[in-house]
Amino acid sequence: MEEQQLTENIIKKVALRFFRHYYKFRLRYEDQPVVAKYDLEGVGGIVADGYYSFKKPDGKLFTATFEATSKESKEEVLYKADQRTLLWDGLAVSSILVVALAFYNFRFPIHALDNTKFSERTALLILLGLTILGLFALIARNFRRYRYIYAVEQFKKYFADEQWIALATDVFEDKNDKNLSELKSQCVHNGIGLLAIDKNLDPKILITPSRHDIFAGKRQVVDFMSNKQMQAFEQRGKLDILPMLFGNADHPKTILRYRKSTHVQLGMLVGSLVLLTVISMKELDNSSIQLVERPEYTEKIAKSKSNNLAEPKSFEIDSASTAKIKPNKNEGRYWHLEKETISVPAESSSEPIAEHSKRSAGGEELTEKGASLGVLYDCSRFYNFDGKKYIVEVGEYQEYKLAAMTVTEVRTKGLYCAALLKSCFTADSKGYLVYVGEIYNSAAEASKEMEGWVAKRKLSKKDVEDWKIRGIEPIVK
After folding, report:
1. Model pTM?
2. d(CA 423, CA 431)
């Protein structure tokens, strides 16, 4: 005799008969009818293979539903890797961590950003995001959240007091099948009952459903109708928008139609991009290098509040001379030594510095403390050096404007910065040496000072990577 094949219709009838027996002793209104049906459909494409309901003594309706699965429809209870949800979750997590690291870098500079390194920063953020995404996928790919089972996910879309999966025993011929183990695990986690029906049409309870609502009323109540009623309802055009609301507009009948929505992850990703843009703009405003056109720079200087500061009442003179000092009658902003005479090299008179530190035949003149480059001296100032000295050089600049901008920028970091004429120390008669700190007696002393600036977090390692220790010795004419 040929063995009977368990079809879904047979499983539905056996499961519905089981419901009548299983719930017959539950408290109910005796005068209220019990509703037992199968092949019902709700809004959004939700299907109930079996439906059983009655009114409880408290007046509320008790409902139990089941999903019937035969060997032919076993795909409904096999788990599949939900790669789409994993990808979107990974993008959301990586974007949040990238924003957190970008903010940390903004507060404690590790990688400096200016308008010459924007593409470098973009590439760095993309690489960082992809690394975090890869690590997240490697760690989270085996989480229950990403093991999609159609029957379980459908039950999550609506409320019923008790939900069951009724399946034929030949769906899983191997009792150690990993799909069966995962199905049992998810049924327990979600409070779903599991019923097995053998070839003799005998039902066997594998897992009983939870008597309490695990999701605390978060699931919606769905009105189920017969297939004919649902078709007539749809033909009247009342359900056209519902598949869109449930996220099933593209493939309303596919086995993957109940995958999780990605709207929240998308919102987090967009929000993170906005925050990254804001942080980057803030960094660019405070960047160490800002390349601007001359008209723009002039306009910024014109709008600067520093133009409204009054002239200082006193001047700090960096000089070892004890000679009397009196103001220059012709230039109120400059001071000169009354008695001391200084020999100025002939080539110095052609330097651009003459525009900022005026000289007279009678002595050395100094600019007011607080000017762009601070105090500027002629070469004779350094003739008393005892051998070679050392400076921490920021850079060499041919133009006074660039040297002044660099000095101002470094001083904003809380360090003293000044400039020297290159013609005092090299045969090159043009340009300036911008340096930080003092003039030191040895290279080791200068190196130790640089390490101290980084240790005190006045500077980052990125700030000082292009600085170098340079020996200087004046050219005596």
Report:
1. 0.54
2. 8
Residue 26 sits at the vertex; the CA angle it makes with 227 and 152, to the nearest 5 degrees, is 45
Give the contacts of 419 (CB within 8 A, at least 6 positions apart): 373, 374, 376, 397, 403, 404, 407, 432, 433, 434, 435
Pairing relationship of beta strands 468-472 and 432-440 according to DSSP bridges: unpaired
Question: Can you list the positions of beta strands (E) in 177-255?
Answer: 193-197, 203-207, 225-226
SS3 249: coil
284 and 114 Cβ atoms separated by less than 8 Å: yes
C-alpha 354: how far from its chain's center? 51
Which tokens sit at 94?
A: 């990586």
Q: How far apart are CA 382 and CA 359, in angstroms?
A: 17
Asked whether 74 and 67 are in contact (CB, 8 A), the reply is no
Q: How far, in Å, CA of 398 to CA of 474, rounded?
A: 19
Could you tell me the two tokens for 54? 């009655």
Which amino acid is located at 253 in the chain? Answer: K
d(CA 47, CA 337): 100
Distance CA 98, CA 86 (A): 18
Q: How many CB atoms lie within 10 A of CB 438?
A: 15
Backbone dihedral region of 44: left (phi > 0), alpha (psi from -120 to 50 degrees) or beta?
left
Note whether 226 and 211 are within 8 A (CB).
Answer: no
Q: Given phi > 0 = left and psi -120 to 50 = alpha, else beta, which region is 191?
A: left
H-helix or E-strand spanning residue 468: strand 468-472
Residue-wise pLDDT tens digits, 354-370: 333 333 333 333 333 34
Give the SS3 label for residue 35. strand
Buried b (16+ CB within 10 A) or exposed e, 293-318: eeeeeeeeeeeeeeeeeeeeeebeee
Mean pLDDT of 103-107: 87
Over residues 384-406, the pLDDT tens digits come to 787 888 999 998 888 888 888 88
CB 406 within 8 A of CB 454: no
Residue 250's CB is within 10 A of a number of other CB atoms, namely 9
The DSSP letter of residue 54 is: E
pLDDT one-digit tens code per residue, 167-191: 999 999 898 999 999 999 999 999 9
